[in-house]
Design goal:
- This protein is mostly helical.
- It has a domain of about 170 residues.
- It is built from six helices and no strands.
- The longest helix is centred in the N-terminal third of the chain and has 114 residues.
- The protein is rod-shaped and about 165 Å long.
Amino acid sequence: MMRAHTKGFVSIISAVAVFGVAVSPASALWPEAKDRAEQAKEKIENRQAAMEERKAEMVQKREEAQDERQQQFCTRFVSNMEEQKNRLTERYQNAMEKRSDRFGKADERRKNRDAKLDETRAEQDAKRAEWYDELSAKADTDAERAAIAEFKATMEQAVATRRAAVDAALSTFRTEVDKLVAGKKTGADDAAASFKTAYDKAIADAKSSCEGENPDPKAVRSVFMDAMKDARGDLQDTRKSVVGIGEDVKALAAAKNAAIKSAMETFRKTAEEARTKLRTVFGASVETETDTNE
């Protein structure tokens, strides 16, 4: 029995001795397997690093592209606003020139009317002088000459009073109209100045936002449009408050015409009384027609 066990053990030992190289591959090949595993791991890590790098590059490119688009938007937006500002300035200057032209024409019309009035008055003065000479030629007595002198004095005073009243009515009308026009002009100028200030501020704010870090084009445009909406609303409200002097001018014209009409009526009454008194001396046949127009 003992021999059998010993024989078996020897056989096993022999087999191990004979096949030792074949039965111990793990210990012999372990370093190589370990190297392959580390290489595989390194490759995986390298691929992951490469993917992360590409991902970072894509993110950077997208950010750069976005920054470029934002910068291009800001550049175009601000440039367009500057061009619009120039157009608004040009339109404003054109409006000022037209307004100045209207004022110039109004002054010219006034001067023409004044010149025409002076011409008419000079003609009336000459015509009255001829009447006085014709009456004087008919005077044969001291009473008649005294009556003519009194008539002339009364008429000249009546003419002077009429002209003073007409001149005062015209002067008052023009002064008050000029005040209305000046008020309208000031209101319009103030409205334009306020709008320009708001417009300049909106552009400056847009520039500042665009120059900041990571500007948001939509936000920049939205803020600018809201600011301009408010500015236009204020401009319209101000314009409404200064427009509409036409009715006031009509009222002033009516007052002027009423004053002139009253002066003419007073003159006609005075002239009629003077003619009636003169006729008591010269008789009903004497010609005493005088001017009643202004």
